[in-house]
Every structure is written in structure tokens, then in C-alpha cells.
Amino acid sequence: MSKDLREEFAVTAPVFLDVDGTSIAVRRAGGAAPGIVWLGGYKSDMLGTKAEKLAEWASGQGRAFLRHDYSGHGESGGAFADGTVSKWLSQSLAVFRHFTQGRQILVGSSMGAWIALRMIQELRQELHKEGQNRIAGLVLLAPAPDFTAELVEPALTKAQKRDLAKKGFFAEPSDYSAEPYIYTRALIEDGRNNLTMNGPIDTHCPVHILQGLADADVPPSHALKLVGLLPADDVTLSLIPDGDHRLSRPQDLDMLVRALDAMVRQAG
Prior knowledge:
Layout: H1 3-12, E1 15-19, E2 22-29, E3 32-39, H2 49-61, E4 63-68, H3 85-99, E5 104-109, H4 111-127, E6 135-141, H5 147-152, H6 158-166, E7 169-172, E8 181-184, H7 185-191, E9 207-212, H8 220-228, E10 235-240, H9 250-267
Parallel strand pairs: 3-4, 3-5, 5-6, 6-9, 9-10
Antiparallel strand pairs: 1-2, 2-4, 7-8
Helix pairs in contact: 3-4
């Protein structure tokens, strides 16, 4: 391996954090506060287009940037089918506690928005005792909090219900991968224990939501419902007329960077 390749590998190779016996892959870059914490979506990894764009932007700004793969995703250990929201939340909190200092902006994509909202709930409980508010802001892309209860369960077919009862899971074709999406009974049942959209949500920080109106996976009405549950916070909703669920086109990435830059300046 050449020196250049060794140096590139040294920069890009993940570190690993053991969380309850599972090896969680983490990439981090030091820099100024507020730092940026990326939380990816269901069956997405931390080397996706949006995460890479933010890593490039944060590096150019000299800003701290942190990302990780949930268990069963990307470079982390564990089986995808064993994952639940509680498990992925626990891993995200462990990474946050271990690798961050000072104030942070959470950027959550799809299911990552659910993880972000649950993280805030958990962190508020522990940091309230210390009089701290570590979360400087939230940027949520095509947010899918409570997607198991709000989007998956109401649309279950008889065949899917039968598979859940007999096999413990059902599979659905994915538009983004050759491998199907797997939804387990454990994921759905655990989702009911992590609901965030069953009452007002107090984040105690500004929130910027980016939602595509051509999103075939998470309908825009879901984002509108979420906005209605954030009455006490400074909330901006940006609707993208031709945006799909991934929001990974150059113009979508530019909008994401602008939203995050404004959030950083607001955090001061």
C-alpha cells in the first residue's frame, strides 16, 4: 500500500465502540462547536451521499463532525434483523456520550429523525440535573418518527400480518437496494415503546425540517403532523416540490447545507 493510500485510509477508517457487546463503527473529526452529529435512516450507512456531503462541509468549516453505523448497518457488527429502535437509540446515545463535548446539532434523516427526537428526551433527563442543554438544534430530513406505528402498521396486508405472526418478520422490496427491507415483529412492538408523536414535543432548541412533496415513503402529511407537535420551539419547515425521500440531489444537498449553516449561526 502506498504512503498516500495509507494516509487516506488512516483518515477514513472508522474507530469502534463496544455497546452492549456489539461493535459500533464510528467516524469522527475534531473541530469547533457546535459540532454536527449525523443520524442515518433505516438500512442506511454513514458513507451515504448526505453524510459524505456534511463531512466535506464540516471539514471546510473546521467544525466537529460525528457519525456512526447502527448495529446491522454498514461497518458495525450485529444482524440487521436483530435491530430495534431501543437498541439503535442506545447505541446512538453511547456514541454521543463517548465522542462529543459541548453543544451539538443533531441531523437526522428519516428514521434518524426519530432517533434524534428520542435522544433529546433521554439526554434532557440526565443533563437537566447538571443544568446543561447540549443540543443546540435539530435538522430533520424527511423525518419518520414513529414510522412503525404511524406508517407500517396501518398499511399491513393480511399476508404481512400472517408472516409477522408465523415467521416473526416480513420482507418488502427496496427502491434503494437489491436486498429487501426486513420488518420484524420485535421492531414493530418496540416501536410502540418509543413513540414521540403521541403528544407535544419539547426539544428546547430550534428545528428545521426538510420535506420533499414527492416523497413516496414518508408522506408530507407526516412532517406537517410533526410540526404541529412542536408548538413551543422555533420551527422552520422547508417543502421541496419535486423532492423524493432520499433528498440526495445536488440541489437538495445545497439546501441541507444552507439549513445547517443557518442553524450554526443561530446557535452562535
